[in-house]
Every structure is written in structure tokens, then in C-alpha cells.
């Protein structure tokens, strides 16, 4: 099956960066944005001024306002928008084709992973999940980036990874879609927590403890969902958790900092905060863990803070006074 042409749907930071990466890999790329005006502006300036200002795009990235037939389709809209987006696409354009899911989040209401949404809306599409430590600005600028690309067929996943790989973009093929999706969604919840720890000036020791206990908690959720804890040793797990929990470049971490400084979710959103997927995912992850009967004190803590049900001091006191237990 040819893997020459790529359609990236979603004209935000990540869609633009993935389109640039695919062009660097030598693919023929169409970046699908919402309107003809947006597409014209991008094609005229070779810059997506709203999503990645100042980043010149390769001539190989051509924007358009509609999806046309492509060998590879990449979805890059926020996790809560994936279902709506798919409901507007012609099933024929997805059937039998690799569809790469790159959003990191769980769906409100249904608790669904991105590939479950794809299965609901386009059951004949072939799902892949791309996740790992990779800020859009780094990828688009050609700074070295490595990610996990998980799919069900080992050989087809390797072929797809090869089609998307470029001099500065290194996708590692994997087979644990569930583990990769859960890791990508949960790392945003822990990034909110780490930002809050720093926003509340609780110290680097607390943040490191949170990353380690978050990793252990993530492993419980991944295995209960049928994924492999081994996946967490890789880019989509440890890699992305480390990046997002320690970098002020992360929008989830920034949102968490504002929470830690005592601002409410509503205030932060009203002040024009950028997309922070963990805000929507925290209550979903808490509900999911509850339904699986797993203990997830950190997810529950973030859920409570995001919902304004508890302040940071109360949360920290509660976490520190839990009964002592063995580490593993
Ligand atoms: N930015 C990054 O560094 C990375 C992001 N990701 C993930 O990628 C996903 C997208 O993030 P990102 O691009 O950064 O977010 P942005 O907020 O930069 O962009 C989201 C884009 O999606 C568009 N969009 C939303 N809903 C729809 C829809 N129904 N149909 C078509 N377009 C739609 C938005 O359009 P409009 O503004 O008009 O609503 C906007 O252009 C998230 O899940 C994020 O976690 C993953 C790795 C890195
Ligand atoms: O997922 C990301 C990097 O891997 C981007 O993180 P933020 O959405 O928190 O900015």
C-alpha cells in the first residue's frame, strides 16, 4: 500500500508541526484547516501565524479547507473534538487507511480513548496512536524529537514509522495502543499536578516524588485497562511524563502553575489559557479509575483541584497523611 500522501487534520500547533515533519520526511502533505481563509493565509505566508507564529513552513506543506484522498490521515484536533471532527468526514476517505491519532486525552462522558472514538465513527479505518515527548515548536523547527507510534500490525506500523521519519523526527514502532493512549492522556493530568506543586512553591523534591508516584499510578491504570506497564518505560510513558512535568513550555504545566498560585479553573480559562488537555481528562481519568476499582490518589487530587473542590494545602495534607505502605 502506498504511503506517499499525508493529510493532517487540525490547524493548531500540533497539526502544523506534524505536517511540517511529514514534509521533512519527503511526503506530499495537505494540512486541513477549518476555513478557506485560514488555508489561504497559511499558503500565502508559508507560516501558520495563529498556531506557530514565526515558524516558516516548508513549501511541501499545503493548506486546504477540506480532506481529500490521502494514503495516511493524521488527526490533530483536541481530544474532545475528535468525535465531532470524524462525524463530518466521509467514511470512504478513512476506510482501510492508516489513521494516526495524535490527541492526548480521554473523552468526557464516554471515558473513551481516541482509538475507541475512531472505531465508533469510522470502524473501517486502521488505527495508529502517536505519542511521546514532543513540543510542536521543537518538531516544526527540526529539533530532534522521538515518539512512539503504536499500531496493531507490526510490519505495517514499521512501514508507517519509516514513511513519517525524517532527519530530526524518529518514530519508534510499538504494538500497545492502549498503553500509549493512556500514558499520553494521563501525563497531562500529572503535568497539571507538577505545575501546581511549583506554583505553590512546594519544592523540587515534592515534584520529583509526584513524578515517581504518578508513574506508579499510571502503571496501575494502564495494566488494568489491558495495556502493558512496559510501554511506560518508553517515550510515550517516561519520556512524555518527564517532559511535560518539568517544562514551563508545557501548557498543562502552565495551567497547573496557575492553579497552584491559587487561581480557579474558571479564572484561568477566562484569562485566555491555551489548551490544557489534562483539565478535561482529570475527571474522566478519575471516573475510569473508580470504575476499574484502582487507587489513584494523584488523579483524584488533580480532579478535586481542577473542579475547585479542594485547595492545594488540603490536598497535600491529605496525600501526606495517607497510611504508610510498601512502595511496590
Ligand atoms: N502542541 C503540542 O506541543 C502537542 C500537542 N499534542 C496534542 O495535540 C492535540 C491538539 O493540540 P494543539 O494542536 O497543540 O492545540 P491547538 O489549540 O493549538 O489547536 C487545536 C486546533 O484544532 C482545531 N479544531 C478543534 N476542533 C476542531 C474540529 N472539530 N474540526 C476541525 N478543527 C478543529 C482548532 O481550531 P479552532 O481554533 O478554530 O477551534 C485548532 O486549530 C492535543 O490533544 C494535544 O495534547 C500532542 C503533542 C504535542
Ligand atoms: O504533549 C506535549 C508534549 O509532548 C505538549 O504538552 P502540553 O499540551 O502540555 O503543552
From TrEMBL:
Ligand binding (substrate): 104, 251-252
Positions annotated to bind NADPH: 14, 34, 104, 136, 251, 275, 277
Residue stretches making up the Glycerol-3-phosphate dehydrogenase NAD-dependent N-terminal domain: 6-155
Record-listed NAD(+) binding positions: 10-15, 136, 251, 274
Residues binding sn-glycerol 3-phosphate, per UniProt: 104, 132, 134, 187, 240, 250-252
EC top class, as a word: oxidoreductase
One GO term describing the cellular component: cytosol
This protein's pathway: Membrane lipid metabolism; glycerophospholipid metabolism
Superkingdom assignment: Bacteria
InterPro entries to which the protein is assigned, alphabetical: 6-PGluconate_DH-like_C_sf (IPR008927), 6PGD_dom2 (IPR013328), G3P_DH_NAD-dep (IPR006168), G3P_DH_NAD-dep_C (IPR006109), G3P_DH_NAD-dep_N (IPR011128), NAD(P)-bd_dom_sf (IPR036291)
Catalytic-site annotation from UniProt: 187 (proton acceptor)
The reaction(s) this protein catalyses: sn-glycerol 3-phosphate + NAD(+) = dihydroxyacetone phosphate + NADH + H(+); sn-glycerol 3-phosphate + NADP(+) = dihydroxyacetone phosphate + NADPH + H(+)
EC numbers on record: 1.1.1.94
Entry's Gene Ontology molecular function annotations: glycerol-3-phosphate dehydrogenase [NAD(P)+] activity; NAD binding
UniProt-listed Pfam families: NAD_Gly3P_dh_C, NAD_Gly3P_dh_N
Secretion signal, residue range per the UniProt entry: none
Compartment annotation: Cytoplasm
Record NCBIfam families: PRK00094.1-2, PRK00094.1-4
Function: Catalyzes the reduction of the glycolytic intermediate dihydroxyacetone phosphate (DHAP) to sn-glycerol 3-phosphate (G3P), the key precursor for phospholipid synthesis.
Similarity comment: family membership: Belongs to the NAD-dependent glycerol-3-phosphate dehydrogenase family.
Protein name in the entry: Glycerol-3-phosphate dehydrogenase [NAD(P)+]
Protein encoded by which gene: gpsA
Amino acid at each position: 500500500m502506498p504511503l506517499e500522501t499525508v493529510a493532517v487534520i487540525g490547524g493548531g500547533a500540533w497539526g502544523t508541526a506534524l505536517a511540517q515533519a511529514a514534509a521533512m520526511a519527503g511526503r506530499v502533505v495537505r494540512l486541513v484547516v477549518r476555513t478557506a481563509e485560514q488555508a489561504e493565509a497559511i499558503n500565502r505566508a508559508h507560516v501558520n501565524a495563529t498556531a506557530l507564529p514565526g515558524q516558516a513552513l516548508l513549501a511541501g506543506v499545503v493548506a486546504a479547507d477540506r480532506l481529500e484522498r490521502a494514503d495516511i490521515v493524521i488527526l490533530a484536533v483536541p481530544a474532545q473534538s475528535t468525535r465531532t471532527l470524524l462525524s463530518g468526514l466521509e467514511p470512504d476517505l478513512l476506510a482501510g487507511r492508516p489513521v494516526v491519532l495524535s490527541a492526548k486525552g480521554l473523552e468526557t462522558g464516554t471515558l473513551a480513548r481516541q482509538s475507541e472514538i475512531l472505531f465508533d465513527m469510522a470502524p473501517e479505518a486502521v488505527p495508529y496512536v502517536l505519542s511521546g515527548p514532543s513540543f510542536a515548536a521543537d518538531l516544526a523547527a527540526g529539533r530532534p524529537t522521538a515518539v512512539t507510534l503504536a499500531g496493531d500490525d507490526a510490519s505495517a506500523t514499521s512501514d508507517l514509522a519509516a514513511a513519517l521519519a525524517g532527519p530530526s523526527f524518529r518514530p519508534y514502532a510499538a504494538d500497545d495502543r492502549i498503553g500509549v493512549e493512556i500514558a499520553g492522556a494521563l501525563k497531562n493530568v500529572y503535568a497539571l499536578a507538577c505545575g501546581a506543586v511549583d506554583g505553590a512553591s512546594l519544592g523540587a523534591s515534592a515534584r520529583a516524588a509526584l513524578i515517581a508516584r504518578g508513574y506508579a499510578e499510571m502503571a496501575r491504570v494502564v495494566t488494568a485497562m489491558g495495556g502493558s506497564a512496559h510501554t511506560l518505560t518508553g517515550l510515550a510513558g517516561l519520556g512524555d511524563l518527564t517532559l511535560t512535568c518539568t517544562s514551563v513550555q508545557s501548557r498543562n504545566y502552565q495551567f497547573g502553575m496557575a492553579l497552584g498560585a491559587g487561581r480557579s479553573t474558571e479564572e484561568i480559562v477566562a484569562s485566555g489559557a491555551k489548551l490544557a488537555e489534562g483539565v478535561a481528562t482529570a475527571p474522566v481519568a478519575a471516573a475510569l479509575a473508580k470504575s476499574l476499582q484502582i487507587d489513584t490518589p494523584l488523579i483524584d487530587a488533580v480532579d478535586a483541584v481542577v473542579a475547585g473542590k479542594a485547595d492545594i494545602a488540603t490536598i497535600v495534607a491529605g496525600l501526606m497523611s495517607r497510611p504508610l505502605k510498601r512502595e511496590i
